[in-house]
């Protein structure tokens, strides 16, 4: 693999380009008209415009992306996250065109991308799963009987969903029917499939995910967990490792369960197995993300293993560079997503030009970003400005470094989530580590504006 096209934008495109250049691999950036002055365009060796600003006319245009590969002679393609990264058809087309897809096989993506099929696979290797329907439910009357059997509240989930989309909560029989119809309609609109399934809603859970790596020779490792419980409407805001609530024995059990699932799927590349953890310490399989995650940086800082480079090595047929016994996890790592959103106004989007952008620095601080003073955060895509990642000797030390770094982070021109993250570093529940998945949503419902005195 001599030249890699990055079928993405923003900070993940910059991240992949840097890894490629360090490995001596040439790079090709693709970009929309809105991203003509983006950092990934400037950093890549070559760049090709593939369409108008909306992603449906650019970053989701498979023919244009593959044409860019042909024009530039790119023999590899990294999809990043989002967009086409978990599109089995896209991976299959790359395979048939002789372009090395830097990720799992199209077969594994299709299998694990079907949430009902993935759940059946987890059950086949005796991994605990959330009680739910036996596969897809199409008939509303049968679905209502299943929901009553499980007991309310229940989730109605899109089988092809992900990223917190395609989910409805039904609290009783009265609103189940309309939620069921709405969930199927959203699934059809967002994922081109109306298929949904039901799951019992686990009360007061935490969101724990395991980072895994597998090569084409059947070797697998995991890099411990990431705790992604701080979310708003199922969108992650803060990720950390190790989790404040996991014991060594539970961590080992979850790691083994994650590897058993991806092994059964014949999976290779980087992936993430996601679980819910209840207040009694029981974990349940949720899904597998068949791509690099936004929060992969947490595992990198904790383990010292470059996940993007491992992806590239695996794609070109190399064995994993480390074995499980060689994986050593040091300290405590926290990542904050700095988004162009206004926390004081229900996290409303705040696109626009950054009149200035001054990121923090100093020991144990990492910034992954594609932004700079004068750049524009467009309204068409994810609102992320930067990921702030810090590492300390323990959780208390990491939070102290995070607080210092957030106070050093200066952005003008748009609203950002910096104030929210500063609020969290001073919140007693966050500091205690004792919170659940609906923690931030409850704060919002109670009128919290996340304003702090950060002087």
Largest sheet: number of strands, sense, barrel closure: 8 strands, antiparallel
The H-level CATH homologous superfamily of the largest domain, spelled out, is ATP-grasp fold, B domain
What is the overall number of helices?
15
Mean pLDDT: 95
Alpha-carbon Rg, integer: 21 Å
In the CATH hierarchy, the third-tier topology of the largest domain is known as D-amino Acid Aminotransferase, Chain A, domain 1
Proportion of beta-strand residues: 25-35%
CATH class of the largest domain: Alpha Beta
CATH architecture of the largest domain: 2-Layer Sandwich
Strand order, largest beta sheet: 13-12-9-10-11-14-21-19
Q: In total, how many beta strands? A: 22
Q: What sort of overall outline do the alpha carbons produce when their principal axes are compared?
A: globular
Helix/strand layout:
Elements: E1 3-6, H1 10-22, E2 26-32, H2 39-43, E3 46-51, H3 62-72, E4 76-78, H4 88-96, E5 100-101, H5 106-113, H6 115-124, H7 140-150, E6 154-158, E7 167-170, H8 173-191, E8 196-200, E9 206-214, E10 220-232, E11 235-241, H9 248-264, E12 269-277, E13 283-289, H10 296-303, H11 307-315, E14 332-339, E15 341-342, E16 348-349, E17 352-353, E18 356-358, E19 365-369, E20 376-377, E21 384-392, H12 395-408, E22 410-412, H13 418-425, H14 428-432, H15 439-445
Parallel strand pairs: 1-2, 1-4, 2-3, 4-5
Antiparallel strand pairs: 6-7, 6-8, 9-10, 9-12, 10-11, 11-14, 12-13, 14-21, 15-16, 17-20, 18-22, 19-21
Helix pairs in contact: 4-5, 7-8, 12-13
